[in-house]
Amino acid sequence: MLIIGAKGHARExxxxxxxxxxxxxxxxxxxxxxxxxxxxxxxYPIIRNSEDINNIKDKEFLxxxxxxxxxKIMAEKFKSLGWKLVSVISDSSIISNNxxxxxxxxxxxxxxxxxxxxxxxxxxxxxxxxxxxxxxVIGNYCEISPGACITGNVQIGxxxxxxxxxxxxxxxxxxxxxxxxxxxxxxxxxxxxSVAVGVPAKVIKEVEPxxx
Length: 212
Description:
Elements: E1 2-4, H1 8-19, E2 27-29, E3 39-40, E4 44-47, E5 60-63, H2 68-80, E6 84-85, E7 88-89, E8 94-95, E9 101-102, E10 107-108, E11 113-114, E12 119-120, E13 125-126, E14 131-132, E15 137-138, E16 143-144, E17 149-150, E18 155-156, E19 161-162, E20 167-168, E21 173-174, E22 179-180, E23 185-186, E24 194-197, E25 202-206
Parallel strand pairs: 1-2, 1-5, 2-4, 5-6, 7-10, 8-11, 9-12, 10-13, 11-14, 12-15, 13-16, 14-17, 15-18, 16-19, 17-20, 18-21, 19-22, 20-23, 22-24
Antiparallel strand pairs: 3-4, 24-25
Family: Belongs to the transferase hexapeptide repeat family.
InterPro entries: AcTrfase_PglD-like (IPR020019), Hexapep (IPR001451), PglD_N (IPR041561), Trans_hexapeptide_repeat (IPR050179), Trimer_LpxA-like_sf (IPR011004)
Keywords: Transferase
């Protein structure tokens, strides 16, 4: 198993895998950071270029980075090399048995709550203690930060980041490629490519569209 990234979020994924007894052959991939050792925790190899991954027999990988754009870019890179994108789901998460649809390549972290009739797209990160309530839709490669509350019938577009502790009230629609600030309360729809912060949240600027 290869974890893309070797910093904080990737290490939290490792914690989950160790508790699930799935960390026998774990490798990390990080071709950017220069301040990391060659072995994480003196045990797990960190690979620094794509040529060296050819020696790994198990061609499955997890996304261990938070940024939605980087998650998408790295997912496409490794899928193009013939690797399979897989999910990690913490045993402490609570996921309804009723009409929940989960995409590939998810990170569902500790103490997450996912209610009934929820759909979560490919590559999304649902971080610790986040809650997603009934009939909500989370787009591809979204980042739902720790403690965020997505109430019922909410729609969140692709590549959108919801900050820690943010609250999205029922029936709100948030567009693609948005950033919602930590602690914000979103009471109205947010258009694509927007940054919104505050209580209630207001759009403070626009960002460039993300070209997939």
